[in-house]
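Example record

One chain of 262 residues, shown exactly as stored in the release files.
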Amino acid sequence: MSTTDQQTDPIAEAIARHQSGRSAVPQAAAFHAWVAQQRGSWSGVMPGLAQARMGHIDFRSPESAVAAASASMDREGATRAYEALQQSQGFEMGVGHWMEQRCVYQSSNYASTRLEGAMRDCHLGVDLFAPAGTALRLPLAAEVVVAEVRDIRLDYGGMLVLRHQGPAHPEFFSIWGHLSHASAQRWQPGEQIAAGSEFAQLGDFAENGWWLPHLHLQLCLLRLPDFSDAPGVGEQAFAPVWQDIFPNPAPLLRADDEALRS
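Predicted structure tokens for this chain:
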């Protein structure tokens, strides 16, 4: 682990708690109890999500045509590979798995600052693949924390971070990546968004970091000093910690959340 000051780094503090045998995030148990009561309640975030036949988009192996094309930012190749998968497997919506160890994060941007020689390649959110321009509806009222455009290839493109606070659950944050630029530019930190609002759209390649159009949805139970730098992928060695800090969104998205895991 690096010499990052643990007094100002909530992630380092969580890692230290886990290494000492404690829960990495004390409020994780309460959050999971709330999620158990809310299964499928976020299925309206994207049209058709509740009933869509899901297909796994494999980013684990360099043998995956989608992974290889995405890593090389080959728009046409990634699109052809995705459409071929849809045709052969008969799914309506692609899904990228939470906690999947991926091969596409190989640039120096993904080198660990916490473990020497390690890469950040463990995916900390759920990816839902849908056409560019697909409208997103907010499932739970929120305050805007970050609204920005990360206009760098293989980054988020349009990005929102929202804070959720209510009497039934601990404070938590949701990270929405690969949005259109207009979706991020529409909002300002501190603004409130009502539940059920159409608040964002998926970006196309030129706006979303040069990925196949999809939503990266990630939850976070820690208040980070700078959510602009919240990791979307982490070191595999810290997987148990990531599971506490960035819990799986799948049970909220589908009551039969195995459809997002299989």
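Notes: Confidence is low (pLDDT under 50) at residues 1-6.
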